[in-house]
Amino acid sequence: MGSCERWITLLLFPCLFTIVVTLPYDVHWLGGATTIERDIPMPKQALDIYCYPGTNKNLFAIWQTVKFHLRIKNDEFRQYLGTTPEDVYKQYTEDYGWTVNPFQIKSAKSTTLSLFTPTCMAVNTKQRHIIELQVIRVDIWRIILMLAGVTLILSSKALSGNPVFFYLCGIFVGVFASFLVLVYYVSKLVPGKKALTYGVLIGGWTVGVYIWQQVWENTRGLLVTHHSTVMWYLIAASFASLLVCYRIGPPRNARTKNMVMWTLQAAGVVMVFSSSSYQDAAGAVIVLSLLIKYFPRSLLLRIQGYWRRKFPPKPRLLTNEEYYEQGARETKHALENLRKYCSSPDCAQWNIMLKLNDSRRFASFVEGNSHLSDEEVLDYESYAFSLDRKPECRRTLEISDDDSSDYEEL
């Protein structure tokens, strides 16, 4: 008995010790719209990693947008993105602990995430900051971009020959091209271009990004402080582009129109494909738009005819008001046609007048007077009033015919 207790003690001895493994980072899984506020971090070893697990593919996510947004007063931060926490932590450890990044792009404060794959992010900074996970269920801008792309695909043939669209595109291209030419000539006046080029080559892409950021900041400042000058420049460039387009004229060659149409369709495809993170659904919308665009019209008419034969539309009965309105309208139209025929050379007026009992009445009708006399109108109104008071007599009015045999002979 003592030997058995000894063996049991030896077997359970390793389980008496608990080995605690502490990860060098803390993972925060964010399932929906979340806001996390971080103060100035105290010295600690763990890195905070924020992860979005992604969502399942469904049609409700076709216009959905998910973003990581970082609110911080300055640009003294480093941001790391990856598909797993391990990947993010690896980027953090390989960054040698640098906190200040003079070449950080400000647009990195807002990052659009992939909807269907996990995305993790970590921020290395000593400043107070707020991290937001923004979930936009229906992004209006994505809807507008998709509708604009589909419209561009379907109306590409009409726009390729539209003069107004030609002038608008010419003005846009002219203003953009004139801005590029202006930048080119200004760059020729910059001293030390070779030294600047060598600096970009030696410093790598970070120097190029920094220079581009400074140029963009200066351009934005110029637009804000000298907006009137910029406005007059745009007006002058637009007017010059309009004159050039007016001198050239809209394209008339069929091949040129086809090239413009294909270019517009390609732009529409790119717009639709970029309007949704659900690439499969965006591709289906593109294929459907192209099928509608190039579907044979003859085949469409055949399908419509077959559908109408198989499922004819159910006739709608007229109401009393519609019946009397249609009768008055058709009677007036028939009388006008009769007057035109009687006044035309094709009608033998003398032969017709010999067959009529009252030729003067016929001549008065052809001249534009009413085909009914005052007594007939009074008798009809009295008879209709009596029918309104006696519902059983209405059927008699519907069956009886008017006393107009002279006009029926015509």
Draw up the topology in text.
Layout: H1 2-12, E1 25-29, E2 34-38, E3 47-52, E4 65-71, E5 78-82, H2 85-93, E6 110-112, E7 119-124, E8 129-136, H3 140-154, H4 156-160, H5 163-188, H6 193-203, H7 205-225, H8 227-248, H9 254-274, H10 279-294, H11 297-310, H12 320-343, H13 349-355, H14 359-366, H15 374-389, H16 394-399, H17 405-409
Uncertain segments are 10-21, 97-107, 391-410
Overall structural class, as computed from helix and strand content, comes to alpha+beta
Mean pLDDT: 76
The strand line-up of the biggest sheet is 1-3-7-5
The number of distinct helices, counting runs of at least 4 residues, comes to 17
Characterize the biggest β-sheet: 4 strands, mixed
Percentage beta strand = 5-15%
Secondary-structure element series: HEEEEEHEEEHHHHHHHHHHHHHHH
What oligomeric arrangement do these chains adopt? single chain
Structural domains: how many: 3
Span between termini: 133 Å
Number of strands: 8
User: Helix share of residues?
Assistant: 55-70%
Given the C-alpha coordinates, what overall shape results? elongated
Rg = 41 Å
